[in-house]
Amino acid sequence: ALELMPGGASPPLRLSRARGQRHVLILGAGIGSLVAAMELQRAGYSVQVLESANRLGGRVLTVRGGDVIDEIGNRQVCQFDNDPNLYFNAGASRIPTIHHQLLRYCRELGVAMEPHINANYAAWLQYDNFRGGQRMRQREFIADARGLIAELASRTLSSATLDAPLTDADREKLRAFVTQFGDLDPSLRYKGSASRAGRLGTGGLFDHDGNKTPLTQAELLSSDYWQSAMQFGESEAQSAVLQPVGGMDMITRALAAQLPGRIQTDSQVIAIRTSDRKVEVTYRKDGATHTVSGDYCLDSIPGQLLSGVDNNFSNGFRKLLAKRPRGTISKVALQMGERFWEKEGVYGGISWTDRDIGQIQYPSHGYGQRKGILIGGYYLASGPATRFTTQTAEERIASALQQGEGLHPGYSKYFENGCSVAWHRMNHMLGCTARESDEETLKVLRQAEGRHYLLGDQISAHAGWIEAAVLAAHNVLNRLEEREAAGAA
Amino acid sequence: ALELMPGGASPPLRLSRARGQRHVLILGAGIGSLVAAMELQRAGYSVQVLESANRLGGRVLTVRGGDVIDEIGNRQVCQFDNDPNLYFNAGASRIPTIHHQLLRYCRELGVAMEPHINANYAAWLQYDNFRGGQRMRQREFIADARGLIAELASRTLSSATLDAPLTDADREKLRAFVTQFGDLDPSLRYKGSASRAGRLGTGGLFDHDGNKTPLTQAELLSSDYWQSAMQFGESEAQSAVLQPVGGMDMITRALAAQLPGRIQTDSQVIAIRTSDRKVEVTYRKDGATHTVSGDYCLDSIPGQLLSGVDNNFSNGFRKLLAKRPRGTISKVALQMGERFWEKEGVYGGISWTDRDIGQIQYPSHGYGQRKGILIGGYYLASGPATRFTTQTAEERIASALQQGEGLHPGYSKYFENGCSVAWHRMNHMLGCTARESDEETLKVLRQAEGRHYLLGDQISAHAGWIEAAVLAAHNVLNRLEEREAAGAA
Fold first, then answer.
1. What is the pLDDT of residues B430-445, one digit of tens each?
2. What is the ipTM of this complex?
3. I need a labelling partner for A405 at 20 to 30 A (CA). Which of A238, B215, B388, B413 fits?
4. What is the helix, strand, coil percentage profile of chain A, to 5?
5. Beta bridge partners of A50
6. Which residues of A touch B476 (CB under 8 A)?
7. Cα dihedral: A4, A10, A12, A14 (round 10)
8. What is the DSSP letter of A486?
9. What is the rounded average pLDDT of the residues B283-298?
10. How far is Cα B440 from Cα A216, in angstroms, rounded to an integer?
11. Cβ contacts of A133 within 8 Å, gap of 6 or more
């Protein structure tokens, strides 16, 4: 029989039917919460989702023309043209194909997917201390790096230091292996690679042509591109990577459509009282205060906000919440009047730089259309993010354009409008992707406080991906079900 | 100013206006011919395209339900369901983004493009002598191969054999470079890579988890995957790669739409008489014989067929035509009732095997739909192609399915119908991709015989790509224009 879940996919969640009337309060309406609500509802639980913002999706945020960006102290109204291709995935933007659970839901719910180009050999790198700050196609650097590594490796072929004794035939195979890997010449030297690094002139695609002169070892080492950007295409986000057609929030919409009447927005939780029998949640909506009660509460309110909600959690849990880190990832989006990058042969993917913007990302959709939205800066480290987000909205755009000129000299002239999102300043959020690797901390974050369970990627060892939030929901639901089966009620 | 043609793009063709009435006969209606006809027409030449088949596009052939495959001795009617996602690009199927000329025409003519996933780390490899013939995700092999190469390279760090003297700081950088490249541990050993090779179980995406045990050097060497398939994603078809939305023949259609009334199908050339003043071409259509005359003749009839057309070419040219090789590439397409591969996390790309089928290719479009068309075999070498194409249409399907079971155990049960194309047996073609690297031969193939010029990828040093046919057209048009400018008339 065909192996349908190979390569480490966990099986789909299969909840048993609810044992009698069970009402579950779910706080927050990110993807993890919506998945939990949908699965519980399917199993016969009644669910109520409370979301403090006036929108759903949490860090799945697709910004289109006319949308308000609710960043504290920096409210913006997006000025993009009204065009289905012109959107900005301000949070999550790509789905690795090893994210089996999320992709299963998308398949089930009919969320159309298309390829997301992540690693693009044709995109650029530009490092201020590398070759006078000039940009270069990534394919050149990558091919030359492989050549260098393979050439170094080839020098060990005749030595006696290999793990296992090699026969002559083995040694010959290893020599061929190294040669193929680096595109070395028969003398095991790397002298450039036309097919990998790109050709001189137009040659090679019609006439024969020579190789480009490879980068020297010193040149290769002088650019920080190899520190991580060069390996980005080898990582979890290696090809193939997907995106929903039309924007990441198509996932939110598809899940929400399964929960008619179960989701309340603009409902800010102000108190949580949990016990071994129930959980009471008090929230404010339209100026009034309401208290609701549930058999369980699944709570994806980010730790940094939850610690400010009146609660009766244990001291250990409260202490931990008060110390939760707040990720600072920020992005700026630029509407460009012309897709000039496609005329350069760059169709999607990422160009890399050591300037604060870090990268420029190109859309993987709408090829050949007139206009496009670039991610003009993706501020991952707290230094660049802080420098970026303390600027006004206008200054952010100006600095992103100025820095991006290294990758695209003159490109500011195509700029039409832009907007930016700083996750650690976004209302109802104040942070993102607090990646936690400490097992003890994870253990506390995952512990039930009475009938209250923390939800979201914040309880995962792999925060920052939707898949982590989905697996967190599954983990919590499995624990809830075990408790029910054990007769907790 | 922005550099609009960086990285080796040749400038667009700019023909001068025709000097008076000039009529050009164009033989064959592949992409190169259509580009030549369109460019000449734009410059004021009158053009007439004669095509022997009843369809346009040459080796740009998209097969849909109901289409006839005109293979000699093996006529087939494609049985695919009538669905825009269900098509088979039997010839050209992908466009590297360095193919600037073709992409410029597509942009100009509004041919919508989308990503084509070529290298997919999630796809499989299966070699009968590797690990008992069991399939493996390519990501595992690739990560472990990088690890091996990097670990070998790391052993040279302390030696004195490097090209340039290294400072301690340089050596430290090189150590980091090698470590990053291979994902080595601090002791410069490769012990597996969770982020690259994939994780054990579901771990790592929610809980921490360990690395898979890496392949040993002997295991790595035992699979021919590294001979070329492993490097396929580094080659000219490296990411990003494109495809026209809806099938490769959207390019043909867009070009043909520029040439209303200028193209005659079912018109088989039987004689060519060339001189220094004109070219006369005799062809048969609807049982009648016609002779037309042109100031020039641009001829993309494949060499192997042209040598059978009555002609007055020079002896040297005739001799060469008679010896033209005939490429044997063949493909089989399988309509599958379920896109089972997407449930395995394989969204496009290629799985590789050492069986005759060589590869299985998955569609990069229509994700999440119910059905899909697989390329169930791609017979590149003449041995496998000959074994394949001497079978009946039914035997081809059966053998492809049987061999593909190595990559997808049990997958035959999803099979609904299929068809195949053997280019060396296709009517009006009898070959494909005769790649020529001999400079002397290319020189003869490119020489004018009176007013007759050979056209098509067959005069390129890089045959087998549409871009080569486009550059060939540009090359011929530039020579024609020079001749006109020199007052050849």
1. 999 877 889 999 999 9
2. 0.95
3. A238
4. 30, 20, 45
5. A27, A264
6. none
7. 130
8. T
9. 98
10. 35
11. A126, A127, A406
